[in-house]
Design a protein that fits this description.
The protein is α/β, with parallel strands linked by helices and 314 residues long. The protein contains eleven helices and 14 strands. 38% of the residues are buried.
Length: 314
């Protein structure tokens, strides 16, 4: 690790945000380093968007410390403008301007010199496959095309840090894959990327991952380490009546989570719970079942982390 990579791009300690009686973010400690693709995984209402808005200076924390690219927030937010790119969930560009007009307007906002603007717009239109749409109104683009335009606009001024709030929630699977390839290209060039998502397959792509639940950080490591250290084991249950079997197993000690996958069930059970124990429980209740170990995935990690945190809360 180089000295530049060792210095945190984002550092928070005890970060919290309240809206009246609602605690949206609570006691959040983060350390994110240069060049990471760092993911926020969590359901709606878990605090992902609120945290991103505090990190770019749009929201004032209720308490805690925030430092982004060497600037303490919220006081130093003005100094971040030219070093940070923020992409919201909803398409926020001008729908009645063309693709090129949107990019040219943002170049003027960032005060790029005219010659640099021409070169930069040409490069972005080519890189994000927008050349054929340069004169089309942004409001007429498809979901994937809008996403590419939004990313081009976000990186127009070559920011050191990208904050992306569920950027792929409204696009097709191929567009999602293309988008993530673009993120890794930016990270390889030294840009730090913080991206929120509720897709497990996207979360698995991140170099590091934070799992948020009801405003709290409940896990933080590489996806591989989180899966390796899972405090439990996944099981696959082939059973004749999966809906009834699920209801039975959800009330069984040692079962941390149960989900129907097609005609089978997938269980997350405590490490001490053997497959034979689950199979015997089902057969005693009149089910025909076969239980086998299954491979760990991030959904198992999410279920275990959020359940452990909820059981620990008063």
């Amino acid at each position: 690790m180089t000295p530049a990579e060792a210095v945190p791009v984002i550092r928070t300690r005890g970060l919290a945000k309240r809206f009246g009686e609602l605690t949206a973010v609570e006691a959040l400690d983060l350390t994110i380093r240069r060049g990471e693709v760092y993911g926020f995984l969590g359901p709606n209402g878990s605090g992902k968007s609120t945290t991103l808005r505090m990190l770019c200076g749009l929201l004032r924390p209720s308490r805690g410390e925030v430092e982004v690219l060497g600037h303490s927030l919220p006081g130093g937010a003005e100094g971040l403008k030219r070093r940070l790119g923020y992409m919201t969930q909803s398409f926020s560009l001008y729908r009645d301007l063309s693709v090129r007009e949107n990019l040219a307007f943002l170049a003027a906002v960032h005060e790029l010199p005219r010659r640099e603007t021409r070169q930069r717009l040409s490069a972005l239109l080519q890189r994000y496959r927008l050349e054929a749409f340069r004169d089309r109104l942004a409001g007429t683009l498809s979901g994937g095309e809008r996403q590419r335009l939004a990313l081009a606009a976000t990186v127009l001024h070559r920011p050191d840090l990208l904050l992306l709030d569920e950027p792929t929630s409204a696009v097709d699977p191929q567009s999602r894959r293309d988008f993530w390839e673009s993120l890794f290209e930016l990270a390889d060039a030294g840009t730090t990327v913080l991206v929120s998502t509720h897709y497990m397959d996207e979360a698995e792509r991140c170099t590091r991952l934070a799992i948020l639940d009801r405003g709290r950080l409940v896990a933080d490591d590489s996806p591989q380490a989180l899966m390796r250290d899972l405090p439990g084991r996944p099981l696959r249950v082939e059973v004749d009546r999966p809906r009834g079997a699920r209801r039975l197993l959800e009330a069984t000690p040692g079962v941390l989570g149960a989900a129907q996958i097609g005609s089978a069930l997938r269980l997350l059970v405590a490490s001490a719970t053997a497959p034979e124990t689950i199979e015997a429980r089902l057969r005693e209740a009149g089910f025909s079942a076969q239980v086998t170990p299954d491979a760990v995935n991030l959904e198992d990690v999410f279920v275990a982390a959020t359940r452990r945190d909820r059981e620990a809360r008063p």
